[in-house]
């Protein structure tokens, strides 16, 4: 396709080879005749020159067609030293590198169309040992580094690809660059991929800051940091919302979830009164064992602040007993009879209502909340997710997402979802909710302008409403999200709503599609690409006779160059992409066909 009026088919047989051989034969015959026939040499020298010029005239076209066909057979797969990225980051700190490729435009769609409407095996030998069709990338004879301004990644990036297509290697390239730029990186990996963890650790060593690496994995508690998912919040009510968000429920208006959230909020308000930071273990203790001890501490602290000699006045309400339920009930009656009239406290009254609630009914209403709370606080997970800074026997560091971001650390958070999917999903969801609180702080108060890169693999496992809020408003908090999934149906299945799934997709400005086998996802991606006009030749022929004179007939044969609207990138080709190859729609409408390397480093042997 050279111009709008010149339609060429580069995959045709090389007819020029026959012409070149003919002219070479003529040149050889002219040379031999001039040398050995005894005839005048001048005419044959002229004939030799003409044949040579014709060979030179035909050769570029033949070579160009041969080279194009040869490119279709080239499978480009390579390793790359990660140290090269260090040098590149120093030269281009404001750009993101994403392998090699080319801008996919109308001419590539036309070339792909010409191949797909014919038998591909006549052009490219079939190789069943290799996954994918390398000829897709071979439609362009040259490639160049794929670069994107970092400012464009603030609109978040979605990577879609089936198992083994290269999503982990894509994360490797992106994580390494973020670490080398000195930015904070948080990786949430439901599978606990060791390669992804090793990539993050290697990137810290390349940056000559191995101390930046932070590791969390429920299956390896002895090697993990202690991570507090409730540390960051703007309002205490946020904590109750993020916990109930991970509890099972039929709808968002489920009365059991609503009651559980109210109960959690009352307990949290009581902890605020006694100036204790909420943890999962404390909340479970007061929900499961009753809030009596918390009521006593909260009321005594409040009475100390508003009455000088309250113990003398409350003596008639308190009995000489060690039963904390009886003591709590006496303090509550004292509040109702005396304090409520003088200095009411609405935060305390919610806790008191919870204490006075019928225990049997209460246990039934929180039955859906307690199991997930028990899972997150039992066994090794207890001190991991509810760290106690006063425990001198536990020397593992304590951290949270806010601290990770402030210190520009690189946190790898494995969720071990393969062993326990419910707990892994709950940990991921509650951490993303904590990240949403940090984003709120950064957005509202401008706490820090340091960019934060969040990588979420198998994002459908941990998606929740706070995560969608980060997608919506994360740009203002300078949070760049890179999320990976296998199909778009995963989001709909997880959220239970096609609308929420589209809400996720609608907040992503950059889309990178690797090999995809799901036809619905293929169609969604290609439908979001612009359409183009595809040319084809229509051949016609016909014969006509005269009714009055049958012996007279006419015939015609012709060709017409036609156009029709088609896909810029055919959906079926998404299922034929080789490993590490991708088609990307970048912010601003740029369409790129690219490929990624596998990063290697001298540190790999040390990590192994």
Structure overview:
There is one protein chain. The chain has 608 residues and is an alpha/beta fold. It is 46% helix and 17% strand. The chain has helices spanning 15-36, 41-72, 82-91, 106-116, 167-180, 194-206, 237-244, 255-273, 280-288, 292-306, 310-314, 324-342, 346-356, 359-365, 370-377, 381-385, 401-406, 421-445, 465-473, 489-495, 498-506, 519-527, 604-607, and strands spanning 79-81, 95-103, 144-149, 157-160, 184-189, 213-216, 226-227, 398-399, 410-414, 452-456, 479-485, 510-513, 531-545, 553-567, 581-586, 590-595, 598-600. Strand 15 and strand 16 form a beta hairpin. Helix 1 runs antiparallel to helix 2 (41-72), helix 8 (255-273) crosses helix 13 and helix 20 crosses helix 21.
Give the helix/strand layout:
Elements: H1 15-36, H2 41-72, E1 79-81, H3 82-91, E2 95-103, H4 106-116, E3 144-149, E4 157-160, H5 167-180, E5 184-189, H6 194-206, E6 213-216, E7 226-227, H7 237-244, H8 255-273, H9 280-288, H10 292-306, H11 310-314, H12 324-342, H13 346-356, H14 359-365, H15 370-377, H16 381-385, E8 398-399, H17 401-406, E9 410-414, H18 421-445, E10 452-456, H19 465-473, E11 479-485, H20 489-495, H21 498-506, E12 510-513, H22 519-527, E13 531-545, E14 553-567, E15 581-586, E16 590-595, E17 598-600, H23 604-607
Parallel strand pairs: 1-17, 4-11, 4-12, 5-9, 5-10, 6-9, 7-8, 10-11
Antiparallel strand pairs: 2-3, 2-16, 12-15, 13-14, 15-16
């Amino acid at each position: 396709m050279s111009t709008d009026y010149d339609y060429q088919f580069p995959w045709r047989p090389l007819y020029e080879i026959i012409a070149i051989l003919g002219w070479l034969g003529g040149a050889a015959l002219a040379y031999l005749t001039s040398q050995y026939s005894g005839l005048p040499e001048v005419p044959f020298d002229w004939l030799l020159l003409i044949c040579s010029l014709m060979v030179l005239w035909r050769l570029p076209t033949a070579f160009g067609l041969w080279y194009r066909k040869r490119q279709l057979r080239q499978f480009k797969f390579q390793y790359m030293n990660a140290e090269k990225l260090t040098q590149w980051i120093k030269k281009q700190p404001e750009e993101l590198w994403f392998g090699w490729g080319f801008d996919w435009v109308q001419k590539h769609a036309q070339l792909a169309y010409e191949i797909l409407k014919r038998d591909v095996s006549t052009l490219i030998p079939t190789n069943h040992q290799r996954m994918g069709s390398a000829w897709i990338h071979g439609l362009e004879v040259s490639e160049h580094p794929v670069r994107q301004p970092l400012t464009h990644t603030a609109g978040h990036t979605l990577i879609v690809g089936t198992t083994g297509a290269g999503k982990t290697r894509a994360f490797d390239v992106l994580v390494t660059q973020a670490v080398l730029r000195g930015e904070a990186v948080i990786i949430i990996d439901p599978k606990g991929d060791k390669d992804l963890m090793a990539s993050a650790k290697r990137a810290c060593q390349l940056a000559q800051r191995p101390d930046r690496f932070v590791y969390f994995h429920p299956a390896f508690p002895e090697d993990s940091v202690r991570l507090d998912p409730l540390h960051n919040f703007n309002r205490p009510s946020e904590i109750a919302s993020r916990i109930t968000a991970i509890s099972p429920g039929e709808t968002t208006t489920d009365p059991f979830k609503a009651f559980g959230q109210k109960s959690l909020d009352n307990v949290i308000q009581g902890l605020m009164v006694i100036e204790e930071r909420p943890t999962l273990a404390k909340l479970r203790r007061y929900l499961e064992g009753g809030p009596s001890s918390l009521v006593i501490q909260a009321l005594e602290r409040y009475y100390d602040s508003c009455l000088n000699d309250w113990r003398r006045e409350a003596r008639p309400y308190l009995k000489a007993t060690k039963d904390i339920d009886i003591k709590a009930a006496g303090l509550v009656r004292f509040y109702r009879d005396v304090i409520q009239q003088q200095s009411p406290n609405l935060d305390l009254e919610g806790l008191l209502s919870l204490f006075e609630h019928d225990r049997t009914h209460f246990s039934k209403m929180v039955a859906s909340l307690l199991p997930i709370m028990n899972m997150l606080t039992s066994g090794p997970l207890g001190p991991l997710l509810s760290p106690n800074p006063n425990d001198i026997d536990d020397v593992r560091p304590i951290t949270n997402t806010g601290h990770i971001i402030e210190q520009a650390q690189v946190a790898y958070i494995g969720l071990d979802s393969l062993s326990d999917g419910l707990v892994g999903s709950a940990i991921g969801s509650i951490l993303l909710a904590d990240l949403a609180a940090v984003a709120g702080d950064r957005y509202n108060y401008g706490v820090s302008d340091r960019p934060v890169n969040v990588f979420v693999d198998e994002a459908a496992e941990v998606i929740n409403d706070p995560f969608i809020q980060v997608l919506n408003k994360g740009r203002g908090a300078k949070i760049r999200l890179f999320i990976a999934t296998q199909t778009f149906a995963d989001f709909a299945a997880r959220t239970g709503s096609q609308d929420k799934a589209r809400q996720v997709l609608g907040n992503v400005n950059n889309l990178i599609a690797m090999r995809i086998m799901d036809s619905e996802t293929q169609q969604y991606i290609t439908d979001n690409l612009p359409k183009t006009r595809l040319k084809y030749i229509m051949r016609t022929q016909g014969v006509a006779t005269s009714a009055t004179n049958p012996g007279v007939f006419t015939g015609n044969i012709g060709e017409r160059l036609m156009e029709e609207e088609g896909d810029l990138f055919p959906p079926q080709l998404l299922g034929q992409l080789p490993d590490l190859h991708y088609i990307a729609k970048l912010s601003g409408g740029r369409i790129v066909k690219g490929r990624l390397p596998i990063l290697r480093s001298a540190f790999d042997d040390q990590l192994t």
